[in-house]
Amino acid sequence: MADMREPIESGCPDGFQYMHPTMRRNFGQWKFHDDPQPGVLRHVANNGDEVYTVKAGTQRILDVFTLRTLCDIGDKFADGYIRFTIRSNIEYIVDDAAKVEPLVKALTDAGFVVGGTKNSVTSLSHTQGWLHCDIPGTDASGVVKSMMDELIGEFTAWNMPNRVHITTSCCQINCGGQGDIAINVQHTKPPKIDHNLVSNVCERPSVVARCPVAAIRPAMVNGKPSLEVDEKKCICCGACFPPCPPMQINDAEHSKLAVWIGGNHSNARGKPTFQKLVASGIPNNPPRWPEATAIVKRILKEYKAGAKDWERINEWVERIGWPRFFEVTGLPFTKYHVDNWRGARASLNASTHIRF
Amino acid sequence: MADKHYPTPMLDELENGPWPSFISGIKRLRDDHPDERIRKVTNSLLGQLEHSYETRKGYWKGGTVSVFGYGGGIIPRFSEVGDAFPESREFHTLRVQPTPANYYTTESMRKLADSWEKWGSGLQTFHGQTGNIMFIGTTTENTQHFFDEINEYGWDLGGAGPCVRTAMSCVGAARCEMSCTNEHATHRHLVNNFTDDVHRPALPYKFKFKVSGCPNDCQNSIERSDFAVIGTWRDDMKVDQEEIKGYVAKKGREYLMDNVISRCPTQALTLNDDDTLTVDNHNCVRCMHCLNVMPKALTPGDDRGVTILIGGKRTLKIGDLMGTVVVPFKKLETEEDYESLVEMAEEIIDFWAENGLEHERCGEMIERIGLVNFLEGIDVEVDPHMVNNPRQSSYVRMDGWDEEAEKWFQRQAEA
């Protein structure tokens, strides 16, 4: 083992040391921005200084070779400064217009994809999946790679009415977040319990407490302390699985994908909104997940055709109404789309507002 | 280089197509890395991942791994199929705190890559969903070596488990004209005050800070953090009338009416006959839409500060919650301003640590006890900005009404 060493509890490092000098100099002094071309932003400061940002999609899970390639490009074409966005795009920021084209070319030649700005479909944010998570129902990285292969033209262009954020998550806890379109796991069967292991592995009271619908009870099974699930009550959320892995929720057949739309955290125009269920029962089908991608593409096609400029997906659907959404996308509307918890009445239509 | 490779027919499919492939990257480590340890560990990782693709199941389990002096910051991973894929049997991740808004120099990045190559798998993610740099895949012993090395040159672990987590902030004042606050300073003041709570998980559950410079909230702080700080302003937005005229000339009145004037959620905008714009600032809710459409013509006002929203979170356990406005406006300019922000965060975390149930997020606690009890707990008075509308249900006991009304008039008189 290593020797004991007192850690230096420095916390979050100061970013100014890594910031391009033109940004450092003009901190808080920016006047406006515009968009010279897809993947490129121009910001102009009050004193006339300019910076150009070139944004590119990456594979997110980077190997050191790729990381060094990105650094080489940064050294050669971008003054040695880089940053990453919340959606794992890389950004190079330069203060000279002449540096933009060579940088775009170097990134493209190295296999990265320049785009993701303005009204594009930017890169999907996602979770760890089978590569590294302990509770994943799917491989978010693989879903994203497959989907971005097909949406790449929407990443590199400004085709959409407004920006589109897509997210994926590898379980129902949903670390992947929410977006205009969210592809999430939906477990459809209660957990299968390995009663021989529960008493060794699980703190039973905390597992009981974790269940949002009080469907889990302590029980003695085969003379051993274990847990039982009231399967009629169980909503298959999987919350019991992380603290108690013998309650296996993932299933090759019954862990499905579901698509939710209309999450929008911006305050622009309307207040922020949560995502709503539109499709479920989608097979969790590696290695390319074609069914999920097809549904996402169908929704994007109708959004692109039907929305007005600046409308995000939630605003488009609010304007045309949900019945029309299901009509134009051809997705089935089922009893599972009707919310049924205590506060659900707020989501029901208490008006004669009906479009024919 | 003659290592035996596990076959990966399904993963190979993910090397097709134009988007960069993480599988090709891992294969490169397996095939070309000079260090035999890295070649073997990534080969084993690919074997296990292919097995997951075949069986549609994950095979990692958690455990307890930490560095000396800390209790968290490592995501321990032990393989459940370690007998079949032994070289990645232990495959822990270190969460490392990035700078606010994720700035790096290539030099800093190369240094991290060198260290990770020495002690880890050579795989990393910029960034995980909580905001950390994720160094994916090392053994228990090398976890300590890698941390010691990068800690010496300026990097520290982030949070994992029931603790204050690594914060996130938008690109902000460093590059964005919409920024109404110093995201950088806010982020560091907040999270670095709680360094002990980041490293030693002792709270009911996770607690996240996120900072966005304006109500566009590019960081999604409102839904993804327990303590969201969002920049805003309270005086008049600035209008460059010449730019407005230029915009009308370029895009036409109809476009402007359809895309700006009629989209204003409070109808606070008027396009005058001479192509200038009148703003009813008292009625403007700072939604940002008109500024987004015409960034050259419209700018936030000068009296800038932040709105603070508490209790946002994702799904588990009672469903998604947005943060709720708890401080409608706060100046953040002087050291005293930042100190009072940090004190407020301390009040909230202390109150939640005492009153939250195990595995209960701050927002869930508020839902359980009611916003008013929470506000009393942290010593903040009610404000009409905190609600969409006043109470609808008449089933409530109101025998303290006169006293509460008096408090309101007193506060109004003092303001």
From TrEMBL, chain B:
<feature type="domain" description="4Fe-4S ferredoxin-type">
    <location>
        <begin position="275"/>
        <end position="303"/>
    </location>
</feature>
<dbReference type="GO" id="GO:0046872">
    <property type="term" value="F:metal ion binding"/>
</dbReference>
<dbReference type="InterPro" id="IPR036136">
    <property type="entry name" value="Nit/Sulf_reduc_fer-like_dom_sf"/>
</dbReference>
<dbReference type="GO" id="GO:0051539">
    <property type="term" value="F:4 iron, 4 sulfur cluster binding"/>
</dbReference>
<dbReference type="InterPro" id="IPR045169">
    <property type="entry name" value="NO2/SO3_Rdtase_4Fe4S_prot"/>
</dbReference>
<dbReference type="GO" id="GO:0000103">
    <property type="term" value="P:sulfate assimilation"/>
</dbReference>
<keyword id="KW-0479">Metal-binding</keyword>
<dbReference type="InterPro" id="IPR045854">
    <property type="entry name" value="NO2/SO3_Rdtase_4Fe4S_sf"/>
</dbReference>
<dbReference type="GO" id="GO:0018551">
    <property type="term" value="F:dissimilatory sulfite reductase (NADH) activity"/>
</dbReference>
<dbReference type="GO" id="GO:0009337">
    <property type="term" value="C:sulfite reductase complex (NADPH)"/>
</dbReference>
<keyword id="KW-0411">Iron-sulfur</keyword>
<protein>
    <submittedName>
        <fullName>Dissimilatory sulfite reductase alpha subunit</fullName>
    </submittedName>
</protein>
<dbReference type="GO" id="GO:0020037">
    <property type="term" value="F:heme binding"/>
</dbReference>
<dbReference type="GO" id="GO:0050311">
    <property type="term" value="F:sulfite reductase (ferredoxin) activity"/>
</dbReference>
<dbReference type="InterPro" id="IPR017896">
    <property type="entry name" value="4Fe4S_Fe-S-bd"/>
</dbReference>
<keyword id="KW-0408">Iron</keyword>
<dbReference type="InterPro" id="IPR011806">
    <property type="entry name" value="DsrA"/>
</dbReference>
<dbReference type="InterPro" id="IPR006067">
    <property type="entry name" value="NO2/SO3_Rdtase_4Fe4S_dom"/>
</dbReference>
<dbReference type="Pfam" id="PF01077">
    <property type="entry name" value="NIR_SIR"/>
</dbReference>
<dbReference type="GO" id="GO:0016002">
    <property type="term" value="F:sulfite reductase activity"/>
</dbReference>
<keyword id="KW-0004">4Fe-4S</keyword>
